[in-house]
Amino acid sequence: MQTNTPPRSTIRLTRRGRLAVVVAGAVVAGTAVAVPLLTLGADREQAQPATLVIPEGWRADQIYDAIDKALALPPGSTRKSLDKAALKLPSEAGGNPEGYLFPAAYPVQKGATPESLLQLMVDTADKKFNGAPVAAGAQRNAMNVYQAVTIASIVQAEAATKADMGKVARVILNRLNSGMPLQMDSTVHYALNHDTENTGRSGTRLESPYNSYQRMGLPPTPIDNPGEDAMRAALNPTPGDWLYFVTVAPGDTRFTANYNEHLRNVAEFNALHRGAAATQPPSSGPLVSSPASPEPSGN
Fold first, then answer.
1. Cα–Cα distance between 246 and 165 in angstroms, integer?
2. Cα separation of 226 and 102, whole Å?
3. What is this structure's pTM?
């Protein structure tokens, strides 16, 4: 196991997707026609179901909460329904739907239940993931489809832009093929159930199968529910020999195979953002994760 790897620094936008429940209605224009239009609007509201929007990169816990809100159920209801949902998941998932609650817009029909919405999301993931191109892409990279979804989930969490996704996927594969730990902060954040924070020394020492600083290989499950772009990147990573990356500034993520070059990039990040972590409130825009030196970090 290679441990001479650099500290990792990234800028992350807090992934707080918004639950969108959209109901079609009519716009009232003028007093003379107010009553007919309001009546028509009510009819349309009854005809068109609400829509539950699941953003890319949401974790299962966030989706459970969103379903509870969409169905006006007490908090925790959807999570409690998992046992009776009998979701059709891959055997590798062990009953955990993480990674297979596909991000999309779902109609909330009258009589919808947590079980029906979860199964609709899993069915959608099956259609996206079980086609021949996906299986061929996974095989080309010496992995199965579940592993590809797991890699896509890390790509979804780590890539600052869609353009970076293929390169992040390549870093993951290069590290796996080189026998290096992934050392991705996003896996530790998943174990801690945090969106974005400085992993720090204590985080890298966390006793968890999701701690990719301490454990070799992929985490046991996906760490979120990736979209099509992240899945495409996992199956068709950009060619390159990169082992490290750092987002120096928004839109400026630098990838390299050279440790010393990476250290220079990290130093530039620190020079640009020194003190930002202390002045940024937790609820505001981008949060800055400082290096966890002297702990090893891969990107």
1. 13
2. 7
3. 0.78
